[in-house]
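Can anyone check this?
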Amino acid sequence: MLEVLQIDFDTLRTIRQASELVPMILGLAISYLAYTAYQQNQSRPMLYVAIGFMLVLFVQAPLGLVLIYLLELPTPVLNIIVQVPEFIGLGLILYGLWVPRHD
């Protein structure tokens, strides 16, 4: 029974990297829908929501890959840098949901 669960670390790393694609695709889809809603309604808060989702769900993985493979930064520094777009994106989503709409 336990033999099925034994996976080598290279396979596990590949599965983990592939699983990063799902949030990226979902982030692009949500951002696209929010941006088209912004274009249709000219609702500025929806633009903030669209940019926020793009930063939270899409920017982190490519930024992390660039920082890991091109600059070879240590993991703690990498984690701090990769969290910056997440914090900004969450702030933009909160602002977009909080700010009153002006019709």
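Reply from J.R.: I decoded it. The mean pLDDT is 84.
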